[in-house]
């Protein structure tokens, strides 16, 4: 079996992503990242009052809004709308595959949380209410799974290269912004977010490779 250059690059990214994720998970479980994590969280708060984040007053409200883009409700709506778009564009195979890919990523994220069972950070007050476990960050991983998978597979239905690049770039930008919002709001350690980004991006790339090799981007003839 032969690979073209982009296929080799994606395969290398997939292997590297898995390696980084499992190594980071091992470090987190052993507690080796705690000092780094706490130092970053403290750096984002004023020294006189840890309940006040650094930066202008409006920034915390902006991140509060941004973090909602990685919530279950918004991601579910994005997935449904993306799937519907592909169905209307007569891309039935990609639509079904995308929906199942995102669903599978969500299941993997929840299983990882339960497996690692890392408590939420308690060194700084949380600026929003949270209840579940910490590693990997669900918002970071699920936004990576959802937005990157949407961007990669929706781009296959686009005619122009500029449009495809924009979709991928927008997906990456949203994923990074949502992940950073979790750190800024004090509800995740930085390594939670790094783990979420790494796991989510690796999943999305793996799904893209499967779709690229086995699923045609041509419209369904009988749609």
Key attributes of the depicted protein:
8 helices; 223 residues; mainly alpha; globular
Number of domains: 1
Radius of gyration over C-alpha positions, nearest whole angstrom:
19 Å
Q: What kind of sheet is the major sheet?
A: none
Count of runs of 4 or more consecutive helical residues: 8
Would you tell me the overall average pLDDT?
A: 87
Class computed from helices, strands and strand pairing:
mainly alpha
- Proportion in helices: 55-70%
- Can you tell me the residue ranges where pLDDT is under 50 for at least 5 consecutive residues? none
The N- to C-terminal Cα distance equals: 33 Å
Tell me the strand percentage band: under 5%
Order of helices and strands: HHHHHHHH
Quick one: overall form?
globular
Total count of strands: 0
Walk me through the structure.
The protein is mainly α and 223 residues long. The protein is built from eight helices and no strands. Helices cover 70% and strands 0% of the residues. It is globular and about 55 Å long. The chain starts with a helix and ends in a 9-residue tail after the last helix. The mean pLDDT is 87.
Quick description:
The protein is an all-alpha fold and 223 residues long. The chain has 8 helices and no strands.
Present the secondary structure layout.
Elements: H1 5-30, H2 34-43, H3 57-67, H4 72-88, H5 92-116, H6 138-155, H7 161-184, H8 190-214
Helix pairs in contact: 1-8, 3-7, 4-5, 4-6, 5-6, 5-8, 6-7, 6-8, 7-8
């Amino acid at each position: 079996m032969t690979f073209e250059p982009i296929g080799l690059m994606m395969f290398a990214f997939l292997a590297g992503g898995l390696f980084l994720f499992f190594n980071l998970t091992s470090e987190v479980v052993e507690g080796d990242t705690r000092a780094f994590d706490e130092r970053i969280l403290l750096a984002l708060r004023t020294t006189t009052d840890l309940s006040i984040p650094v930066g202008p007053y409006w920034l915390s409200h902006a991140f509060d809004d941004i973090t909602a883009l990685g919530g279950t409700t918004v991601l579910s709506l994005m997935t449904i709308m993306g799937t519907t778009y592909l169905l209307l564009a007569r891309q039935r195979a990609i639509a079904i595959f995308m929906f199942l890919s995102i669903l599978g990523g969500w299941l993997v994220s929840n299983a990882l949380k339960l497996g690692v069972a890392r408590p939420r950070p308690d060194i700084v007050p949380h600026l929003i209410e949270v209840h579940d476990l910490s590693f990997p960050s669900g918002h970071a991983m699920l936004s990576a799974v959802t937005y990157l998978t949407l961007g990669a597979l929706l781009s296959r239905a686009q005619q122009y290269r500029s449009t495809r690049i924009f979709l991928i770039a927008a997906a990456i930008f949203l994923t990074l912004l949502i992940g950073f919002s979790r750190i800024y709001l004090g509800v995740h350690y930085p390594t939670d977010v790094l783990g979420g980004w790494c796991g989510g991006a690796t999943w999305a790339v793996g799904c893209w490779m499967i779709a690229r090799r086995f699923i045609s981007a041509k419209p369904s003839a009988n749609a």
